Amino acid sequence: MRLMQDPVQVLLIFAKEDNQSDGFWWACDRAGYRCNIARTPESALECFLDKHQEIIVIDHRNSRYFDAEDICRSIRATKPSEHAVILAVVPRTSADQEETSILPLLNAGFNRQFMENSSITACYNELVQIEHGEVRSQFKLRACNAVFTALDHCQEAIEITSEDHVIQYVNPAFEQMMGYHKGELIGRELTELPKSDKNCADLLDTINTFIKKGKEWQGVYYTRRKSGDSIQQQVKITPVIGQGGKIRHFVSLKRLHCANENSNQKTSSRNWAQSLTDMMSCRCKNRRKDSIDIKLITSQSSDGKKGDSSMARIHSMTIEAPITKVINIINAAQENSPVTVAEALDRVLEILRTTELYSPQLGTKDEDPHTSDLVGGLMTDGLRRLSGNEYVFSKNVNLSHSLLSVPNTTNDVPPCVVQLLENEESWDFNIFELEAVTNKRPLVYLGLKVFARFGVCEFLNCAEATLRAWLQVIEANYHSSNSYHNSTHAADVLHATAFFLRKERVKGSLDHLDEVAALIAATIHDVDHPGRTNSFLCNAGSELAVLYNDMAVLESHHTALAFQLTTTDSKCNIFKNIDRNHYRTLRQAIIDMVLATEMTKHFEHVNRFVNSINKPMASEETSSHNDSSDCERIANIKNFPDIQILIKRMMIKCADVANPCRPLELCIEWAGRISEEYFAQTEEEKRKGLPVVMPVFDRNTCSIPKSQISFIDYFITDMFDAWDAFAHLPVLMQHLANNYKYWKTLDELKCKSLRLPSENNY
């Protein structure tokens, strides 16, 4: 459905002409709006009832001529006003005067207030914001009335339900077919309606499997009329994707089944399904809430017999979580199983009912202390200790970007840096050489090159100077004193992310917004890192740990600070020119990726990726071996935002810990740097009397090869096997095998350092 919109109409209600009324008049002229002016309450109401203006501006600065709130109430008492936005012009307050509450205005019927400002640009900005917000939304809602009128006169039975299968709409044809009045159906769950016993036992499961995956289902289905008679219907159920990329509604078209249906009827059905899908998508995208309050409907359907009806619905539910289905299958299998099998299944059920399904459990005997310490340090919040020790690191937030020397443009880069960056698209790019020639400022230079290659400035509609200033501010807030978590690590993760984004399957699965979000997330993912783990901060009772309730402390801080640094200064605000919806989507994607780098949910992310992406793709590949089918499968991923999220999480996780997959010399350098950071943490823990979360990282006794072997075995191998199966990364996997062999050799020779004593340091 194509929505046509006439020019916006504005009604100005000012008792006398002044600079403020002139400002709005000329603002309307600039915006191309039709404008009327009323001087009295009577003429204002008469004009509105005649023209039905979308925006009404009422002078609320002086009550000597008329009462602005009374005018607003009189307009609101009319039916056309439900689609109007009413703006109150209020007097400007002085600096020492406390701003008044807007609640009285809202109670009177106003939507917004405008602080007195006769600037034509200020008035224009206010009116344009209203048009692009409330006015356009109201216009789309009014257009929906026409669609529902068409549905009411449609010959086919139509039923619309919410994502929870609560009935929200039925048309008269549906009422006639089923024998119900719509008042008996609206707000009821489908599970509450009588079922026919003529359907196959697993038909409902089959239907739910299709539609929950966003797929359309079409077939023959038996149902019961209100009278109890069973009828056979030709049914087509279409899931409607709405806000957040999730299924928000199901549209069902139903006809009495007839073997002699002709092709014209099928074509008609298909067209109606498409129209309904488009209409519902429009409603979902442009409204913050669905048209019906599902919670309210559910509560209204209880009818006083809450306990009995709820229990009945639970037993008759056809919509179950996968884990519930697994448990039910096991319970059924136990009934006819031998005692030994039943006992074994009891243990299986006990495991399945735990909340940590994805986290492996280490043994208590003969376990590798390096592995145990890595898990304790990276995947838990550490031991809790009630003491007076408190660690509060200094957050030296650097909002200035005037102290660092950076190029004026991407063309104004030192020749030595240009030469190095010629190789930045290669996986073997040496980030430490860039660190050296840029005086520990590799992030700005690499960022400018990578962001230009991916068209980030074009997507964000920001100037290159803004991006340059942003990169400078972000890099200034990385701690160069950290041996590992500094801007060189951020640049390394950015490089890996850009490399992954160029792989065919990754590129084909993601949109431009996803690419931009991934590059930004990689850039900011460790900003202001103190060089200590989350476990350390929680044990020390740091102010950040208190602020974020000991959960994803650093990752939450990195994202919060990055957005604070970005938005507090217009010179470096790369988001200032994108619209609100794009910004919210981009911001959510960035936050989600940075939080995915937190290690406590490492195995959950990996297992979800394997089960949702690797295994389904592998099973499809066995049935089809041509390249075109693979391209279609990858392109289809763009229709499933949840799958895209898993890909982005896996990508940044692999980029964040890709050190063991780098060329050997780079791998060795990174191993030395992270070990040094852990050594320093252990020393500080001992010095301050804090629990030592990784005891093996003692500078005097630690075996770095053993720690690397444990890290690769426990965290890296499975994750990169899964990522390689999707993205195809033979070079990385070869480096990983070579590096693992190197660390094994050192360990077998009882060498605890980075190299054999005879070798020169890197």
Automatic annotation (TrEMBL):
Keyword Metal-binding set for record: yes
Cofactor: a divalent metal cation
Catalytic residues, chain numbering: 485
An individual GO BP term: cAMP catabolic process
Top-rank taxon, per record: Eukaryota
Domain PDEase as annotated: residue spans: 409-750
Keyword field: cAMP, Hydrolase, Metal-binding, Phosphoprotein
EC class of the enzyme, as a word: hydrolase
Sites where the protein binds AMP: 485-489, 526, 656, 708
Entry annotated with the keyword Phosphoprotein: yes
EC number of the protein: 3.1.4.-
Binding site for Zn(2+) 1: 489, 525-526, 656
Subunit structure of this chain's protein: Interacts with RAF1. The interaction promotes RAF1 activity.
Protein name: Phosphodiesterase
Name of the encoding gene: PDE8B
